[in-house]
Design brief:
The protein is built from no helices and 24 strands. By secondary structure, the protein is an all-beta fold.
C-alpha cells in the first residue's frame, strides 16, 4: 500500500482532548467516476505535482510484480498519458512530492512482500526524467513517506515477508544524504504518513500479519524529534491510504485476511476528532490517493484481499 504525502497546511493548534469517530445518521460525501487507468494495478502509489496526478509502480496481479509504469492524469482533460517509467519496477512503495519532484522510496520486486529493496528514485515531471539517488540504509518495503521542512521522511516498513521495522530516516535533497531520525514508538508498515503544517501524522498500519492491524495515530515533530499520541483511527487497518483533504486527514480502505475495507474516516483537524465519511462503493487497498482542490482521487488497487479483484477504476470523492 501505498500513501500521498508532502502536502501541508497552515499550522493548527490542537485542543487537548481525546475524541473518536462521531456516529452520524448519514455519513457525508459522494462518489463519481472519472477516466479509468489504462490497466488495473495494485500496490501502487500516487503523487501530485503542478495540478497533475502521477500513478507509479505497483503490480499487475498474477502477471508482473515489479511494474515500472508511470502514468499522468490531467483532471482538466480527464485523460491519462504514459510518462517515463521508473528505472526499475517496484510494488508497495512510499512516495512524496518535494520541490516539484516525486520521490519513490523502497519497495518489493516479487509477490508476498519478497524481493525487498533499498532503492530511492527521484522523478522530475517537467523533464520527464528519473535518477537514482542515495538508497535507504537497509532494504524495506511498505514504507510511509512524507515531506516537512524541505526534507523527506521515511517511516517503518518491513524487511521481509513477516518482519516489520521501526526505522525512520530523513533525506536532505541539498546534501543528497540520509540521516537517522527517531524510530517509531512501535514498528509497523502499510500505514499512512500525512503532513499537516510542520508536523507529520502517522496513521494505522500493521504490526506484521494482515490480521495484526493497528489503530495507532501518532504525530511526529521534527523540531524536537519526538512523537505524541493522538486519537486512534476508529477502524484499525493496514493497506489503506491517507492524505490531507478539506481540513481533514482522510484515511480510506485497507485489507485483512477476510476482506477489503471500504471504510472512509476523517480526522477533523480543527475539532481534533475522527468522523465517519461515506464509505467507498467497494472495499479497496493498494491504491493511489491524491487530493486536488475539492476532489479526492482514489485510483486503481484491489477490491478484495491480496490481489483479488484488481480494478482500473478512478473514483472521485467530494464532501457536500
Amino acid at each position: 500500500m501505498k500513501v500521498l504525502a508532502g502536502l501541508a497546511c497552515a499550522a493548527i493548534a490542537f485542543p487537548l482532548l481525546v475524541a473518536h469517530a462521531q456516529p452520524q445518521a448519514s455519513a457525508p460525501g459522494v462518489y463519481t467516476t472519472r477516466a479509468a487507468l489504462p490497466a488495473a494495478r495494485n500496490e501502487t502509489t500516487a503523487a501530485v505535482v503542478n495540478g497533475k496526478i502521477y500513478v507509479i509502480g505497483g503490480n499487475f496481479p498474477s502477471k508482473k510484480y515489479d511494474v515500472a509504469v508511470n502514468e499522468e492524469y490531467d483532471p482538466a482533460a480527464n485523460a491519462w498519458r504514459a510518462r517515463a517509467p521508473m528505472p526499475s519496477g517496484l510494488n508497495h512503495i512510499g512516495s512524496a512530492a518535494l520541490n516539484g519532484k516525486i520521490y519513490i522510496v523502497g519497495g518489493f520486486t516479487s509477490n508476498g512482500h519478497k524481493g525487498v529493496q533499498d532503492k530511492v528514485f527521484e522523478y522530475d515531471p517537467a523533464a520527464d526524467a528519473w535518477k537514482t539517488i542515495a538508497p535507504l540504509s537497509s532494504p524495506r518495503g511498505s514504507v510511509a513517506a512524507a515531506v516537512v521542512g524541505g526534507k523527506l521522511h521515511a517511516f517503518g516498513g518491513r524487511n521481509d515477508k513477516d518482519k516489520v521495522v521501526a526505522d525512520h530516516e530523513i533525506y536532505d535533497p541539498t546534501s543528497g544524504k540520509w540521516t537517522a531520525g527517531k524510530p517509531l514508538p512501535r514498528g509497523r508498515d502499510h500505514m499512512a504518513a500525512v503532513t499537516v503544517g510542520d508536523k507529520i501524522h502517522i496513521v494505522g498500519g500493521r504490526y506484521g500479519a494482515n490480521s495484526d492491524k493497528s489503530d495507532l495515530h501518532e504525530i511526529y515533530d521534527p523540531a524536537t524529534d519526538t512523537y505524541t499520541s493522538a486519537p486512534p483511527v476508529p477502524t484499525a487497518r493496514g493497506g489503506g491510504a491517507g492524505t490531507l483533504f478539506q481540513g481533514m486527514i482522510v484515511f480510506l480502505g485497507g485489507e485483512d485476511d477476510d476482506r477489503g475495507y471500504n471504510e472512509n474516516e476523517g480526522f477533523v483537524l480543527k475539532d481534533y476528532r475522527w468522523m465517519t465519511l461515506k464509505p467507498m462503493p467497494t472495499g479497496r487497498h493498494g491504491f493511489g490517493l491524491a487530493a486536488l482542490g475539492s476532489d479526492l482521487y482514489i485510483i486503481s488497487g484491489a477490491r478484495s484481499r491480496g490481489a483479488q479483484q484488481p480494478t482500473d477504476e478512478t473514483l472521485v470523492f467530494r464532501m457536500p
